[in-house]
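The record is given unchanged here:
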Amino acid sequence: MHTKRRDFLKLTGLTGLGLLSQPFIGKANPGTPTASSDFPGSPNRQQTFNMSGYAAPKLAKVRIGFIGLGMRGPGAVYRMSHIEGVEIKGLCDIRPEKAEKVLAEIQPKGHQPTLYTGNAASWKEMCDRKDIDLIYICTPWQLHTPMAVYAMKAGKHAAVEVPAATTVDECWELVNTSEATKKHCMMLENCCYDFFELLTLNMARQGFFGDIIHGEGAYNHDLLDLNFSKDGYHDMWRLKENYRNGNLYPTHGLGPICQLMDINRGDKMEYLTSTSTNDFSMKAKAAELAGEDRFYQTFADKNFRGNMNTTTIRTSRGRTIMLQHDVSSPRPYSRIHLLSGTKAFAQKWPEPARIAIGHNWLSPEEFKKLEEQYTPEIVKKVGDMAKKVGGHGGMDFMMDWRLIDCLRNGLALDQDVYDAALWSVIGPLSERSVSNRSNSIDVPDFTAGSWKNNKPVELTLQGGGTTGVQN
């Protein structure tokens, strides 16, 4: 497996381009711009085209090619096969058996995609096809940006799993390429489409919470065993990502809060500080496994990220965001999703989801009435089907349906390239802050100032609404 991955990177030329595993280099002074000359939002940078609110030409059908059919890819193909107006044209994975298995599952639905496999550069061949509109990327993190950039330059919209980028320079590359090509680059942040997150977004849009003061999000998920599983991730790539010390996976908790606060569309992040605990679990786990299996000896010699990372962000309008990330402690799953306003308060984790006006939580009956009043149109239209098809309780299907409906009806996407870059850049910025005694780090303005006039997302509206679903 290691040899295949090495050959894959060599054949595609990604390592030669310097796009993988780039170190985060910069000055140690708190709040001082670091990394590339374009970071953090050089005043000399000019926006070549504003992708926020951009509606690409309508597509009668959305023809899709999928790259990566490991853990996330097959589910995405399955969900898309239930959406009207979708043609699955290509399936790509370096492992032939992965592509063949997915092909067998969707052929009964009338899809006859071409398989791209075995050849480490075959994903480029698929991207270069003239009869594909959208490339859907579900590969290891370090391949997200190179593949999305190549797809956009080949004239395709790109939908990429989270995080969209792992370095500051990659974030800028996504932004610059999307603006230059006028192709969408949407990060597939599914948590923005969960039911309570959509409910609170609609409530915020209608002023229920008053002025938003503070938000919290997290990805706290005990993945210790999965991170060390030989079968869990190709070439142990997920485990290797944990050599980095920071909030490596910020977007699940951050995305919904940013939409609630209209970040990039009326407000922007100014700076962050980040702190990590020591590692109390991963190195010990590696040593334990190494005693049983020589395969793990390499990992026993490595240093891993701390168990818990806490990152705080201040916005231009004086609001704050708190993020947490812990994938190695024994604890219940939590994304927190907390919203504090001048009139009301909401929180989802720990379950059940609750809303308060003042000191006390609303009763279940009162909460039910709010749900009936504020459930957004997208949930009314496809919520039941989303739960039936599945994908994290239905939010994955809702995300895919909304993407296709926007592309078919010529609507602006709910998540644009500036969101993909901003939500992802928290990872490398948090690393920098952690390594410098939690000094504050400025956050880039990927919109080059257009955040002041960009309009809020219309996710709570029905949109085009012409795209149906199939059983």
